[in-house]
Design goal:
27 helices, Aspartate Aminotransferase, domain 2, Aminotransferase_I/II_large, sequence-specific DNA binding, five-stranded mixed beta sheet, globular, alpha/beta, HTH araC/xylS-type domain-containing protein, aminotransferase, DNA-binding transcription factor activity, 3 domains, Arc Repressor Mutant, subunit A
Amino acid sequence: MPSTPRNRTVSRLQPFASTIFAEMTALATLHDAVNLGQGFPDTDGPAAMLEVARRAIAEGVNQYPPGPGMPVLRQAIAEDRRIRYGLDSDPDSEVLVTVGATEAISAAILGLVEPGEEVVLIEPYYDSYAASVALAGAVRRTVPLVTAGDGFAVDLDALRGAITAKTKMLIVNSPHNPTGTVFTDHELRAIAELACERDLIVLSDEVYEHLVFDGLTHTPMASLPGMRERTVTVSSAAKTFNVTGWKTGWAIGPRELIDGVRAAKQFMSFVAGAPFQPAVAYALTNEQPWVVELRQSLQGKRDVLGKALTEAGFTVHSGGGTYFLLADIRPLGETDAGDFCRALPERIGVAAVPVDVFADNRDDWKHLVTTFIQSTWQITDDELFGLGSAPVPRGTFRLICLTLIHCPDLGSAFARMSDVIRALPALAPLSIEKGEESTRVSFAVRAREGVAEPDVAERVTTDFVLILLHRFSAWLIGKRVRLRAVEFPYSAPDARLAQDYDYIFGAPVTFGAQRAALEFDNSAMRAPIIQTEETLEEYLRESPIQLMSERDYDSTASAQVRRVLELGVKGRTSTAEEIAEMLSISVPHLRRLLRRDGTSLNQLREEVLRDVAIAGLRRGESVEVLSARLGFSEPSAFRRAFKRWTGDTPSSYR
């Protein structure tokens, strides 16, 4: 009879066998939920930075780089700190490139702390700290943050009391994961004085150094008196430039400390990824304006999510930085964040993370959940793509609906929708103009306002939002919403599409307007919101909008590509690279999805050209006109292609 399998994981690592992030992500996937428990962004970093990485791969930068990191990146890191904080570092001996910040943290603990020595953490803490302390055979001691107003503060007396004769290292994380707290200068100076007094090494995790809000500033621990010689500072490209998968981080400190970090790091990964290092160096030097925009965007998303959670009944702890926002579940009658978060994906289609898993004193934190603001309504072109049926990821749709059903009437809901639109990267805020008999709700594609002809991706974004606003309205008040007019900020691609939109909206449609707009009767704007959380699930099952999970959405790739190809000559002749860019996916991903649909880009292009040609011939267009419009070099080439497509001649379709 077979014996029960034994747990062969070493005892010091058994508590870390799985992570809460994996558990919550699995539940989000199972229930098609919006995953506000994921620790990574929904959008890529600066395009020029990505291009530098692509070019490095193409030019053969694919073998082992120098162990400490490429000189170009170490120099860029040192120069960035000099310019930003006035801190000088020798790029050759005081800067070490690592496989992400997590490796830098682990290597610092393994390389600088002896077994049996103590490491003090401020809780809640990033989960890798505890695992790294265990790997080193060291002893973990914790000091909890305390509530201060609507945020948190360091308990300096408790911190002093936690230091013993065996304490070797103190880990400081500001801006703080997962509370979003930005430690004050007073707190940091008090920590620095304690470290100097007790001769402690400080491991300063500053990966969110650029993501601080509300006019706050980040103070590096190493900049404080007496701290340069005892601080290892850790940072990363992941959170600064939205490239978490590149795993490019670094440690900075005096040579005698960095030597210890390097000694451990070289036997963990040996080197960090080569082609990403010149790209990160480029970004540190050239992409700071992009970082400013990211910070502003995240602050806006924090505000949107914080307002929505407050309206839903949570008490929100508004952090001053990072990706994170904490919410207290006790006003909802809940007391256990773990149970609450495990039920949340199925219950309302949102995943979050309980905070108590990041603490040793778990009872102190069982009432709090953390959410990632990087995921807040960060709707990409990939999600926005589609006309007519307007596919929407189910979890995203559910989350937005939940923010609107508490409004008293449709006019108030549109004001609330304005906050949602503000969180969409591609769109300008809603403009709501109320007249005597009607109300005009309009918006513009942010980057293209005033431009006569938006490109294909911008048209699709515009069309989707118009349809979504119209159908939201009908659902919220429980009856058809009468529109007086609909306006599109581009010329009609063809008569058929214009007729389609007349049918979809049930109102006169105008193309070529300055802004996209819906004009409502004021009686509709006064209509009360009748929906509740109880009616939402039924609507999600029967919604006229095509709702689908993110997994299902990939299966519509061929339909999306076909729509791109249908929307004009440029689309029909677009390369795979251009179409992939329009869809916000990579070319290999595009080709994989099309293969799964049993088709290819060339096949779709041929089908669209055939359909457009037949429609043009039936409208009376000449072969010469169609040949030029469809990009053929001469009419005879068009005739040959038409014969291949249909087995017939153009004259047969006149």
